Amino acid sequence: MLNQKLQQKLLQKLSPQQIQLIKLLEVPTMQLEQRIKKEIEENPVLEEGAQSEDDDYKNDAEDDYDDDSDDGSDNDDFKSDDEFSLDDYIDDDDIPDYKLNANNYSKDDKRNDIPYSDVASFRDHMISQLGLRNLSEAQEIIAEYIIGNIDEDGYLRREIEAIADDLAFSQNVSITDKELNDVLKIVQDFDPPGVGARTLQECLLIQIDKRIQTSSENLKIIKIAYKILNEFFSEFSKKHYDKIISKMNIQENELKQAVDEILKLNPKPGSAFVGQLLKTAQHITPDFILDEIDGELILHLNSRNIPDLRISRTYAEMIDSYSKDNKKNTKKDKETISFVKQKLDSAKWFIDAIKQRQNTLQLTMQAIIDYQKEYFRDGDETQLHPMILKDIAEKTNLDISTISRVANSKYIQTHFGIYPLKYFFSEGMQTDSGEEVSTREIKKILKECIENESKKRPLTDEKLAKILQDKGYQIARRTVAKYREQMNILVARLRKEL
Length: 498
Description:
Elements: H1 16-26, H2 29-42, E1 46-48, H3 61-64, H4 97-100, H5 122-128, H6 137-148, H7 160-170, H8 177-188, H9 200-214, H10 219-231, H11 233-237, H12 241-248, H13 252-263, H14 269-278, E2 288-293, E3 296-301, E4 309-311, H15 313-324, H16 331-371, H17 373-378, H18 389-396, H19 400-407, E5 411-414, E6 417-420, E7 428-430, E8 436-438, H20 439-451, H21 461-470, H22 477-486, H23 492-495
Parallel strand pairs: 2-5
Antiparallel strand pairs: 1-4, 2-3, 5-6, 7-8
């Protein structure tokens, strides 16, 4: 049964201008320059250059323009004394270009271009080596299929039986597991060494076997390393060195040299190849510059490569001229004026959004500096106070989500280095004396303890917790483990060295 009813609702929706500002807040300085250039290319009303006092694009004539007024006359001979006239590009026989453009996407949709690399891919590098081997047609098909199943790290993650089934169904190639293993051995002989392995142990064994075949020095030590990987891999991975020395009947010095040889091997041969081809130096452009002048901290926004924006005076005057005589305008004139006016409004919104973005960034960063003033004077991590997004939101009267967007992917250049804004945010805990300290200070102490520990007997998480408790930090063992993992530090057993 259908019913009709009248209902009132109170909703909050973001305007297009607010959405545009939110997106600009997330953009770092390096990408902002590109974003502005893109807007200039898409909007002819927007120009580079400082706005002069004579450029009054907010005239009342724009608002007085009436799109609905139509006296029914088609004055095709209408001319203007302005330097730029609509008749210069309006032709009765032609349809305006903007009417021919179809756009099935929303302005908010992200359409990322796919970059194409001009270097050979890892798979292409592998395929190119097939031509150097004397293989039958069936073997080439099998080898190409195996290479297609090798991941970016260089490993073959699929079972041999599954590959054989796929070849039978997709390529109509019937092959036994032995024949497939023979072709796999050929692929495993390709460069980089260790490619095509199914496990870490097999990957390292392939590499150490090639070392035995090509090396003339330290051959004895390399053979010991091969035996360790082949027969005592479990003990090696768990660093049970005493068991290896006892079972292999070798000296500790020989074991140390063999372990050094193993550590020279690459556990991810594929990623090393890709990284070598595509490795680029990371270039960071700071969004803020902090200078210390006569003991005073001065903050600047990095706007070096960001151009000034203004409204095109030509288009503004054109709107003014045609708005005054709107009764004489033809229907096409009015449609074109409406289009230009839309671009004019879009340019105004974009300029206002850029200004508001700069003001928000300046306000937020200044609040962070005021909160961490002792730290920013000399860069001592122990002076870094606990600070969360809510603290800065309360100081600036901004929303927490706005502070989060400002802190995301932004950097500040100080006299002691360049740091991401997220670096200054950390949780806090109380010491025995009741003082509130940052968790980053605790992590620094943990790191120093681990760096100074005996590598033959590394400190366990329990011992590290005891050290911190003796220093006045009431911290549990599981919390120590959490901080250690956040710093990418291994457990004590895996930090053990000979």
